[in-house]
Amino acid sequence: MTAAASQVLDRVLVLEMVRVTEAAAIAASTLVGRGDEKAADAAAVEAMREALNSLYMDGTVVIGEGERDEAPMLFIGEKVGSAIGKGPKIDIALDPLEGTTICATAGPNSLAVLAIAEEGGLLNAPDVYMDKIAVGPGYPEGIIDLDKTPTENINAVAAAKGVPARDLIVCVLDRPRHEALIAELRQVGCGIMLIGDGDVAGVIATSDPETTVDVYMGSGGAPEGVLACAALRCVGGQFKGRLLFRNDDERGRAAKWGITDLDKQYDLSELAKGDCIFAATGVTDGSLLAGVKRKKGKMTTESVVMRASSGTVRWVKGEHRTD
Hints:
- It contains nine helices and 14 strands.
- The chain has helices spanning 3-29, 37-52, 100-105, 150-161, 179-188, 199-204, 222-235, 248-256, 268-271, and strands at residues 58-63, 79-80, 89-98, 111-118, 129-135, 169-173, 191-195, 215-221, 238-244, 266-267, 277-282, 293-295, 298-307, 312-321.
- The strands form two sheets. Strands 1, 2, 3, 4, 11, 12, 13 and 14 form an eight-stranded mixed beta sheet that branches. It has a six-stranded mixed beta sheet with strand order 7-6-8-5-9-10, sandwiched between helices.
- Helix 1 runs antiparallel to helix 2 (37-52).
- Mn(2+) 1 binds at residues 41, 65.
- Pfam families: FBPase_glpX.
């Protein structure tokens, strides 16, 4: 990244990212508990796109709502920003409403999430599943490996932490596809935190001792994996990911975005490299952030914004007038 572009990121985009996630979270919050996932997601998408287009940048969505024929806005490859062709070139990964089902049912940990990096800094991950494992900071490099069994990974983390495996907590998405994984983890004896949705928050939880989560395991969306890696780059931790393909159509989509090694095990720095910025605003209350609250004449939001180059983490509480 050029010095000029870096200065623009410092001065404008770091905290402006919070404005973008706040806009999406506030829009989605009007539909919390209403049972309409699509309406909540559409409201968040529209608000995030409008906010992104107000920023001075030449942005490209590399992780978005789908390809051009599937999503009307914030699709993969869409250009956003007010300085297309002349501003700093920025790659953008986003999920305007991480946990659409959570929002629709008023569950915990629904977020508006965004990550940016210099051009080429974020993997153009297709909308397929990804096998994932993550731990927080403080472990020897290479402590986790998708070529090892869950038992081997748990025992390695436990040994490095200096505790028995039964003292570890593993976060896993509560899905039928994880029945064998959950059974093996229970056999090892560690605790399991099952979550209904929102695996970006699940991965990030490994970096925060307050959550008690030591390891994240299981398969989830590849785009969410890239977003989570951008956050871990800022706060520390390790992540391994491998794309999972169910059919030739999904393999073709991967090839379209330049992925040739379909069996590759990706490291954290390969999914999100360079100077990353990660921002999230709570839609509903969760372990990471409080959700949007409405009071007479105002709304309150809670957000976090992180930067890889400085290791800075800022917690931002916003108060927004509604009159």
